[in-house]
Amino acid sequence: MSLFEKFKLGLKKSSVSIKSGIKDIFSSSKIDDETLSKFEDLLISADIGTDITSEIKNELKKTKVDKEKGHQFINNYLLKYMSNILLPCEKNLDQIKTAVPTILLVSGVNGVGKTTTIGKIANYFKGKGHKVLVGAADTFRAAAIEQLENWAKKINVEITKSSQGSDPASVAYRAIETSISNNFNQVLIDTAGRLQNKKNLMEEYKKIANVTKKIDESAPHDVILVLDATSGQNVLNQVEEFNKIIPITGLVMTKLDGTAKGGILLAVAKKYKIPIIALGLGEKEDDLQIFEAEKFADAFTQIT
Ligand code: GDP
Ligand code: MG
User: Fold this and answer.
1) Ligand with the closest atom to the CA of 227
2) Which atom of ligand 1 is nearest to the CA of 110?
3) Model pTM?
4) Which end of the chain is less packed: N or C, by CB atoms within 10 Å?
5) Element (H or E) spanning 279, and its range?
């Protein structure tokens, strides 16, 4: 099964069926307030959010629709609408290389899939023949260090680590030093799953970023925020808060293989226009889909 198929299958698991939903709603060849309001509910249930939903509704109110092909028209309209927002946000993982070594800081709240995503991205770079280092700067729990170690072993990349409770910024510092003196192409720094409203944890996160600048002023070259698609509208708040501390340069949305609704990615793209790097579609090293706007929009609107 291709990753695209997997993605469709994942979206299918959610209670939302965009394609058949549209077909049902617009079956009576009538586009009026009632059908539009049903369509609004459908979009909201797909996690697209109220802002985009009302915009779509207002635009459709003004649009002349071929009544015979109402549902097809709406489906194409949604596909185009999504592509327009998402296309400017496409950022290939290969575009990430801006320096050698490229220092990537990976952040996000607890459990979203940061460590797993680091494993997948490291594996991607490794596959390109790059020399990759991972830095275990989530020193909050021993299990977190061990988890990254297991990934490093599994995909055969090197790791810089320290003991539980040690200063995360110093682990990051050592990882970068190592990557410079040993000619690594990329260093991916894992961070603790900090809640964006816990001030001291955010300060610590900032400290990690500052330490990277001590070695290389242009670092971190990429700040990747990992988002869990199953978190719903809460995701917007996470982007807002993390972006305030260090500007995010790339997003990864995980767990789109599960019960996710996916529409939240559109809401994030519309509001923040932050590049999207990849999608997480499982727990294995190759369950990573490089983000392609049109493929995403297509899969999303084709869910039956
Ligand atoms: P962290 O706390 O942000 O580092 O999150 P982890 O990387 O430890 O992931 C938390 C859980 O989510 C683990 O059980 C992962 O296997 C799982 N996970 C991560 N990414 C994905 C994904 O794309 N799909 C699925 N189904 N599970 C994922
Ligand atoms: Mg982790």
Assistant:
1) 1
2) 2
3) 0.94
4) N
5) strand 276-280
For ligand 1, whether the C-beta of 108 sits within 6 Å is yes
How many Cα atoms are found within 13 Å in the side-chain-facing hemisphere of 221? 18
Mutate to test the pocket of ligand 1, among 7, 116, 205 (most ligand atoms within 8 A of CB): 116
Length of the chain: 304
Exposed, middle or buried by CB within 10 Å (0-12, 13-18, 19+), for 163? exposed
Which residues, 6+ apart, have CB-to-CB distance to 286 below 8 Å?
120, 123
172 phi, psi to nearest 5 deg: -60, -45
What phi-psi label fits residue 193: left (phi over 0), alpha (psi between -120 and 50 degrees) or beta?
A: beta
Q: How far apart are CA 222 and CA 43, in angstroms?
A: 32
What DSSP element (H or E) covers 32?
none
120 lines ligand 1 (CB under 6 A): no
Distance (angstroms) between ligand 1 centre and the Cα of 249 equals: 21
Kindly calculate the radius of gyration of the chain based on its CA atoms and give it in whole angstroms: 21
Residue for token digits 């971190």? Answer: 220
Q: Note down pLDDT in tens along the chain; length 304 residues.
A: 666 677 777 666 665 688 888 888 887 667 788 889 999 999 998 899 999 999 999 998 888 776 666 788 889 999 999 999 999 999 988 888 778 899 999 999 999 999 999 999 999 999 999 999 999 999 988 899 999 999 999 999 999 999 999 999 999 999 999 999 999 999 999 999 866 557 777 888 899 999 999 999 999 999 999 999 999 889 999 999 999 999 999 999 999 887 657 899 999 999 999 999 999 999 999 999 999 999 999 988 887 6
Ligand nearest to the CA of 108: 1
